[in-house]
Amino acid sequence: MANRGDHVNPGNTGVSSELSDIPRDMIIERFHDDAQDNIYQRFEKDGRQLPEGLHYIDSWLSADANICFQLVATQDRDLFDYWIQHWSDLTDFEIYPVDQNQP
Prior knowledge:
Low-confidence stretches: 1-13
Largest sheet: 5 strands, antiparallel
Number of helices: 2
Number of domains: 1
Strand content: 25-35%
Mean pLDDT: 84
Distance between the termini: 21 Å
Order of helices and strands: EEHEEHE
């Protein structure tokens, strides 16, 4: 998978110390058919459009570049609704809490 993101912390962990205790979620974005160009144009123009309190950690693209896996951290899961509103015309979202205690 290709990586497509700016990191919170470019070090080995990819996670800054201020986010170490904040719950994480794995976001799976499935791009709508023929939406890739529009997704990257919007991303270049407006960035991720994450609301304050929803922190990007890292992301990976599937080999066919039609699915993006994003690791994020937040203490307020309601922030996902705001973020999804800005992208739902181009991609479908799945959100899964990550168990940080698993190896």
